[in-house]
C-alpha cells in the first residue's frame, strides 16, 4: 500500500465515524506515523508504507474514530509560536487562549515595573502555554507558573524545557498560593469556567481532558470570584489581571472584578467575536 491510498482509507474510516474534520485528522496522523510534516504527504503519494507503519496508522485512526483527542494521539500541539507536549492529565492548548497572550503582550509596556523586567504569575498554568509565551515575548519578564495537578505539572516542566523558557514552575493550589505570591506586574489565568450543565453537553473528546481543569460548579464563576478577591493585593498598583472567560460570562465577570475593587475593567473578544478575555487593573493609588 502507498501513502495516498492509506491516507484515503484513514479519512474514509473517520468520515464513517462522524468526524467533521476527517481529512485533516487522517492527514495529521499519517504525517505523525511517517515522521514528516503534513505538507510533505502529497509529494509522497506513491511511496510505499511498511506493514508496521500501516498497522500503527490504522490503530491511531481507530482510536480517533472513538473520539480520542487528536492532540493526545499526536503527543504535542502548537500554540502561538511554540509546540507543547500534551497527553491525558493536561488541558489541550486552544487558539482562543492565544488572544489572552496577545492582549498581555500588547499591555506589557504600560505595566508597573516593565523597564526593570515585570514579575508575572500565571495561575492554573496547565501545559504552560501562557507562561512560556509571555516569558518569550515580554522582554526581561520574570514568570512563575502555578499548577495544582501533579500530572499537568509534569507537562508544564517538560514544556518549559522544550521551549527553552525561563519560567519558574510551582506545584501548588492557586486557592492558597496568594500567601506566597510575590508582588506582580501581571497575573494571568485560564481557570476552570465550564458550568455543570455545559459539562454534560461537551464534545466526546473533551471528556478525556482533566475535569479539574474544566469544571467550575453550578455557575462557572467560582474561580473568578476567588482569584479576583485573593490576588488583588498581589498586584502592584496599576498592575493587571487578565483572565480567559467563557463566551457568556463577560457581564458576570465584569461585575465580580468591579465589586472586588478593580478599575479599568474591559472585556475583549476572540477572533470568532465571542467574549473571551477579561482585563482589570489594581487602582494605581490602591
From TrEMBL:
Check the UniProt entry and state the signal peptide residues, or none. none
Biological process annotations from GO: methylation
| UniProt-listed NCBIfam families | hemK_fam (TIGR00536), RF_mod_PrmC (TIGR03534)
Q: Which GO terms describe its molecular function?
A: peptide chain release factor N(5)-glutamine methyltransferase activity
**Pfam families given for it?**
MTS, PrmC_N
User: What is this protein's record name?
Assistant: Release factor glutamine methyltransferase
Give residues annotated as binding S-adenosyl-L-methionine: 147, 190
| Residues engaged in binding substrate | 190-193
Protein family:
Belongs to the protein N5-glutamine methyltransferase family. PrmC subfamily.
UniProt keyword list: Methyltransferase, S-adenosyl-L-methionine, Transferase
Q: Known Gene3D superfamilies for this protein?
A: DNA helicase RuvA subunit, C-terminal domain, Vaccinia Virus protein VP39
Domain Methyltransferase small, by residue range, is 119-198
Q: Write out the catalysed reaction.
A: L-glutaminyl-[peptide chain release factor] + S-adenosyl-L-methionine = N(5)-methyl-L-glutaminyl-[peptide chain release factor] + S-adenosyl-L-homocysteine + H(+)
Amino acid at each position: 500500500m502507498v501513502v495516498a491510498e492509506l491516507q484515503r482509507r484513514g479519512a474514509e474510516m473517520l468520515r464513517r465515524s462522524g468526524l467533521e474534520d476527517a481529512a485533516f485528522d487522517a492527514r495529521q496522523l499519517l504525517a505523525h506515523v511517517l515522521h514528516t510534516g503534513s505538507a510533505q504527504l502529497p509529494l509522497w503519494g506513491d511511496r510505499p508504507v511498511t506493514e508496521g507503519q500501516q498497522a500503527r496508522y490504522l490503530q491511531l485512526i481507530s482510536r480517533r474514530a472513538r473520539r480520542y483527542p487528536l492532540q493526545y494521539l499526536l503527543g504535542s500541539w502548537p500554540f502561538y509560536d511554540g509546540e507543547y507536549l500534551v497527553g491525558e492529565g493536561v488541558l489541550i492548548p486552544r487558539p482562543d487562549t492565544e488572544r489572552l497572550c496577545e492582549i498581555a503582550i500588547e499591555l506589557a509596556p504600560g505595566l508597573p515595573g516593565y523597564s526593570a523586567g515585570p514579575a508575572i504569575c500565571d495561575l492554573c498554568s496547565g501545559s504552560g502555554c501562557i507562561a512560556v509565551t509571555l516569558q518569550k515575548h515580554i522582554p526581561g519578564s520574570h514568570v512563575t507558573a502555578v499548577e495544582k495537578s501533579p500530572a499537568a505539572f509534569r507537562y508544564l516542566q517538560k514544556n518549559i524545557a522544550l521551549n527553552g523558557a525561563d519560567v519558574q514552575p510551582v506545584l501548588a493550589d492557586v486557592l492558597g498560593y496568594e500567601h506566597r505570591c510575590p508582588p506582580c506586574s501581571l497575573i494571568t489565568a485560564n481557570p476552570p469556567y465550564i458550568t455543570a450543565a455545559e459539562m454534560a453537553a461537551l464534545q466526546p473528546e473533551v471528556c478525556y481532558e482533566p475535569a479539574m481543569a474544566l469544571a467550575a460548579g453550578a455557575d462557572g464563576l467560582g474561580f473568578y470570584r476567588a482569584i479576583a478577591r485573593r490576588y488583588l493585593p498581589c498586584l502592584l498598583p496599576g498592575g493587571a489581571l487578565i483572565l480567559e472567560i467563557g463566551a457568556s460570562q463577560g457581564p458576570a465577570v465584569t461585575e465580580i472584578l468591579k465589586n472586588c475593587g478593580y478599575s479599568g475593567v474591559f472585556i475583549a473578544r476572540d477572533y470568532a467575536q465571542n467574549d473571551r478575555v477579561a482585563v482589570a487593573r489594581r487602582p494605581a493609588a490602591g
